Amino acid sequence: MLWRLLRSAIAPSRTAAHEVQRALGLTRAGRQVEAEQLLRAAVRQYPDDAAAATNLAVVLLDQDRAQEAVPLLQRALEIAPRFAPALFNYAHILRFSGRLAEAISHYEAATVEDPSFAPAYEALMQALLDACDWDGAERLGDELRRRAEHDAPETWMPFVSPLTAIFLGLDAERCKATAAFHAPKPAPRNRPSLLRPRRAEDNRRLRVAYLSRDFRDHATSQLLGGALGLHDRTRFEVHAYSFGVDDGSSYRQGIIGSVDSFTDIAHMSDDEAATLIADARIDVLLDLAGHTTGNRLGILARRCAPVQAHYLGYPGTLGASYVDYFIGDPIASPPELDVQFTERVIRVPDCYQLNDCAAAFAIAPARRAEHDLPDEAFVFCNFASASRIDRRTFGLWMRILHAAPGSLLWLLHPSAATIENMSREATRRGVDPKRLVFGDFREKNAHLARLACADLALDTLEWCNGHTTTSDVLWAGVPTLTSPGQTFATRVAASLVLNAGLPELVVDSDDAYCTRAIELAHDRAGTAALRHRLRAARGSAPLFDTTGLVRGLEDAYEAMYAARIRPPAGL
After folding, report:
1. pLDDT tens-digit series, residues 193-226
2. How many CB atoms lie within 10 A of CB 209?
3. Which among 73, 247, 271, 366 could bridge 216 via Cys, Cβ 3.0 to 4.6 Å?
């Protein structure tokens, strides 16, 4: 899962008002190319207009063209140094260039210059979490919770994304309402006659389509890449609709080769894309984005398939009346969590998460010396993004390190600001910061190879578990310790670990989490036995049976479609 990267809808200035207003309408309709052309003309005509330059930069950012956006935002800030939208969007570029402290400063400046500019608060929260600035995040979180408690929904919801609502620990009703607020409103159906389900006696294959921005080198494709080709072609036609960039990666090429049709709809408006999907007579449409960066929920809002469901890409409800189902499993989304969803929850029998890292079997394990890890150390690891590392979990990790002399904690290399904050917190808790080891970003196979250097993975607990990161370490043969929470986002790792055959590593409290980790650090033979069991289970446990997971999903697709034809008593 990714943080939602918010863009700003910039109010037009007086000089370029007409052009900017038209461009905003085009971007909302998904017509980015036309919006770009219009705004380029506006920038030429009004070279001293900060709003025109900023809006063009936003359109380029939405197309993953940050390098072209930088000079436009710098120019906007030269023209109007206190212009909140330019500060906000330039902060995005700083953040994703690794200049996190500068990004936080620009986000904060945007909130000061325009306290009503809601996207800046949301992005500031995410940047503070990236930096593990828990004091700053808690102060801002307290302010957002206060607004949610006392202000009218239409006043506070613009300041809180659906994912941040989960992080803030808002109750189920507020989380659902926030998701609904940020979801596009239902739009008129295009050619509604095409949406009638086929007759039950029609024996043609069920047409299933996956809709995603991330058919590229991305966690979504890393999970799905080896699985889509396993669909039973006697029962299903499999289609993919892509609205993201073509990165030319092997992941994208693998998905293109594993489906019956692959269609790039990045250049289409929501209306055009919805009509295309409806014309293809898709039976079940799977959205893989949810409330994440650059989503195209506007396509689903036009009801282009009889059954529309959300799967894999976002760990919570979408709050949209036009999304019929959320696909989960008995561990990650037990029946008592149904109240947290506006969709009907359908559960596959084992693990909801398709994943396929079979290539890990053929990868030669890395040596510790290659990663500055002492051979004699007990190595704990967590390779989640820093934004998922909360103060509570980090405190538990320090408690574990303190009680396990000679152990290290291996993390993914964050920004300099994040390392500084983590080191300060470790020192405050009596742990030498040198026991925190940071590994740089590696491509997938190299990452899987280095994971073999770890002894035990420690999951994040407070608001979001490891999802793809957890399946990676399990496929690499590294046991993972977790403790499930009370939301889908905090129960995914438990589903993965249980379906990998390691029930003793799913514990029910913080104390049990620390106790188990410390025991294993002092019991090398016991840890080795867990690793041996896990590696043996790669031939039998449900998590590693990708074909079996695909069959479970296929049964869910057929059940969802059958319910559309003849609603059953229950699923």
Report:
1. 556 666 555 678 999 999 999 999 999 999 998 8
2. 24
3. 247
Nearest to 522 by CA among 456, 426, 459: 456
| Measured CA distances, 500 to 138, 445, 503, 533, 551 (Å) | 35, 20, 8, 10, 18
Widest Cα–Cα separation across the chain: 73
Q: Each residue of 445-484: pLDDT tens digit? A: 999 999 999 999 999 999 999 999 999 999 999 999 999 9
**Cα separations in angstroms, 191 against 187, 195, 277:** 12, 8, 11
* Spatial distance between the Cα atoms of 377 and 367, rounded to a whole number of angstroms: 13
**Best CA proximity match to 490, nearest among 3, 140, 1, 6:** 1
CA distances for 2 relative to 6, 162, 209, 288, angstroms: 12, 13, 22, 12
pLDDT at residue 4, rounded to an integer: 32
Q: Where are the domains of the chain?
A: 17-160, 192-354+548-565, 365-538
- Looking at CATH, the fold of the domain delimited by 365-538 is given as Rossmann fold (3.40.50)
Strands, sheet with 480-481, edge to edge from the N-terminal-most edge strand: 436-439, 407-412, 378-382, 456-458, 480-481
Those residues with Cβ within 8 angstroms of residue 465's Cβ, 6 or more apart along the chain or in another chain: 388, 459, 482, 485, 489, 490, 491, 492, 493, 494
Contact 343, 326 (CB under 8 A): yes
AA identity, residue 8: S
Alpha helix (H) residue ranges in 434-565: 444-451, 468-475, 492-499, 510-521, 524-537, 546-565
Nearest residue to 363 via CA among 456, 473, 471, 448: 448
CATH tag, 17-160:
1.25.40.10
Domain 192-354+548-565 has CATH 3.40.50.11380: yes
The pLDDT tens digits for 516-568 are 999 999 999 999 999 999 999 987 999 999 999 999 999 999 999 999 876 54
Angle at 303 between CA 349 and CA 9, to 5 degrees: 105
Do the two domains 192-354+548-565 and 365-538 of this chain adopt the same fold? yes
**C-beta neighbour count of 126 within 10 angstroms:** 23
- Ordered alpha helix ranges (H), 131-208: 134-150, 153-156, 162-167, 172-182
Q: Tell me the CA distances in angstroms from 253 to 216, 221, 332, 546, one per residue in order.
A: 8, 10, 31, 20
Mark residue 88 as left, alpha or beta (left: phi above 0; alpha: psi -120 to 50; beta: remaining): alpha
What is the SS3 assignment for 457?
A: strand
- Among left, alpha and beta (phi > 0; psi -120 to 50; other), residue 30 is left
d(CA 95, CA 133): 14
Give the residue from 462, 461, 460, 503 showing the smallest Cα distance to 479: 503
